[in-house]
Every structure is written in structure tokens, then in C-alpha cells.
Amino acid sequence: MLGVRFISVTDGIDSINQNNTDMIVSFKNLLNDAYCRDISIKIRANLQALMKQGKFIGAFPVYGYMKDPDDVHRLVIDPEAAATVRDIYKYKISGMNNAEIARALDNRRILTPLAYKESKGENLKSPFKKNKELTWDHTTIKGILSNPIYTGMLAQGRYTTPNHKVKKCFKKPETEWIIVHGTHDAIIDTREFDLVQKIMSLDTRTSPNERKVHPLCGLVVCGDCGASMVKKDVPGSNGKVYSYYICNKNKQTRQCSSYRIPKDKLEDIILKVVQIHIANILDIKRIMEFINKVPFQELDIQELEKKKAYQTKNMEKYRQLRNSLYEDLKEGLISQADYNELFEGYKHKISELLMVIGEYDREIQDILHDRNEKYKWIDHFAEYQNIQSLTRIAAVELIDQVSVFEKNRIEVTFNFDDCYTQILDQITQLGYEVDTDEEGRIHFEKKEASIEEKI
Asked: Nearest-CA neighbor of 21 among 7, 1, 34?
């Protein structure tokens, strides 16, 4: 079509002399394409098998790790780079934004991931290398902070190509990723990683005059409209700067009343509420130790057994509906197409319920063998029992949201509030009355036993 002469020496083909060139070339291309397709399928299947086994298949390990000299499919910690990764997470938890973290690393003369790999003799090329002297970038920091590989897990198969002919990659849905836990030693523990993910989900922008975000940044919302409250600085006549929290949407929507609360006053109130909440949790911990954990385990198992029985009943209902479909088909009440669709739907629902029931069984076994970490959250709060000032890490780890209303009325929602309420209910079920005083401190009192219980 384009007038190009085609010559194949080994096949003895010259398009200028032979009339059957098109047929021979097309046939050979067909065979070659089938061979390439077959090889591609086999390679993909082999890589899928390696990923499911938890083996690393990348060409270069992520910053902080290196390949095991004895096993190229296993990652081991690179001590020098891992120390920098830990510093990045500490900076983020302390309140620094990504750009400030990058500047801090540049000031410390820390090599960027690309420069570090080049210093180790790795021939790694990157399209992001524009200047001879590499510097840290906020996108690099974000990539390190959001990569779950640092918790000891591998999430592979995130990108793919449609077939062996198309080389353009596209990102696969997260449900199709191959995730294997415990494949290598962790640099960052799961709790610290989850805390950083929460921080990154909040509005943590800093003003040009500040290096770190304030403790309650992203946690304070307007109690009337639910919009975020932002900190505003107002210079006073005496040269002092006064900081207030105001609703971010009030001027635009007018859906709430116009009110403000001083930053220092809000932080002082929140600190006192946090101290009272931690004191209550410590009291709960003491009474749990007094009662013994066995009754709590029995209550947990009873609750799980109830949920399991409910889901089992639902599963039997779907099984009966599935079994009755054949009779409906024979009697002509439904068509073959409807039968196939309903049958597959009931089958899928039964499969989902079986997985849920199996999960309940595993939770029950964990409780019986003392592997359950349901009350681990109590220790998280207990770590801050001597808190004297509201820090960023304490606020993010303990508080879910702070709602501010008119007349300085404040509602604090803590993390694990559902667990807190549930354990109070369990203590009540075990024969204790729970009361709260004006300051918010809880008190426990043993109920008087009934005549039947005494007998």
C-alpha cells in the first residue's frame, strides 16, 4: 500500500519479484503472533503465581529495601535508607507538610531515592531527573508515606497492559491487586502507618509563616452545617496576633450562625476533655482486671454467636429460594433466562454469607485462644495517661472529630467510641451500675443482688 519493498533473506522473499508474498508474509505473521501471545500468557501466569506466593518480582526494590543477595524475590531492609523512611514518618506525625519534609531532608544533605540508588551502583533511569543535582520533592514524600510496603506487605499487580501488543499501562482496580502480608520485615508498624494515612486525609495545609500544622488542624467542624472550621489570625492593636476558629463556609452559604472560638481556649478545653476521657478508660481497665477478662470473653462470644445465627438463618432462606427455582421453572412461572439469573444471584449471596459466617468462627476461635486484640485500643489511650499539653500526634491518634456550636458548646468524638460504649454496656451486663458526674468522670457501683441470685 505504501510502496515499500520487503526482503526476507532467510525465507527467500522479495516483494518486487514474487506474487505470493502477501499470503506467505501474512501466514508467517499469524504464526509469529500466536507464538508471542502464547509466550505472553505463560509469562503472565508465572508472574501471577510468584506474586500470590508473596515473592517480589520488581526490577528495583522500593526506597528503604534491597534485594536479598541469596533470593532476588525477597526484600530485606536497607538500614541507611530505612532510617530516612522512619524520619519521614516522624516528621509527618509531628505536623510537617510534605514540602517542609522535603526541605528538611535537603538541608540534611540526604540523597534522594534516585541519587541513593545511583550511589549504590544501580543503573536506574527516571524521566523525573531534570537537573544534575537531585532534590527531594513533595510527590516523592507522598509516595513514601502512602506505600503500604513499609508495613511488611506486598501489593503487586497494580498495573497491567491489555495484551502483548499494547504496551501502554493502566492501573487496575484495587480489588484486583495481589496483596500478601508478612512477606518481609516492616520498617513502619501498622499503627503508625494508619495514623499517617489519617493525617494525610485531613486538611493539613500550613500558613506561609508556620512550619507545622496546629494540633487540631482538620479535626474541628462547625456543629451547625458540618463544614470544616479554619484558623484565622487577627493582628491586635498591641502587636499581638489573636487566633480564632471560624466556619469555612459561613460567608458563602449562611447555613449556620456566625460565631468564633479562640484557638487557645479551644485547645485548653479539648485537653481537659481528653484527660477526663483517658482517666475514664484507665478506670475501665482497672475494673476489667478486677472482674477478670473471662466474663468479657463470654459476652463477646455470645454476641458473635448471635450474629452467626442471624446470618445462618439468612443463608438457609436463600438456599430454600434457590432450591424452589426449579419447580417454578417446570411450572412455567419463570423463564429459563430468569432462572439462570436468579440461580446465580442466590448462589453468589450464599457464598458471601458463608464467608461472613467463617469470619465469625475465626473471631470466636481467636477469643478462645486469647488471640483477640479487641481491647488493644485501651492501651493506645493509656499511653497518654500523663498528657499535659495537646500535641498533634495525640490529637490525631485519640480524636475523631471536634464539633463546635454557638456559645462555645463543644462535642468531642473520640476514636473507638463504639468500643468504649460497648464495653460500658458489658460492664452493666456483669452487674455494675455506671454513673457519670458533672465533669464527665464515670463511676462504677456493684448492683445489689436479687433474692433469687442470693439463693
From this structure: 7
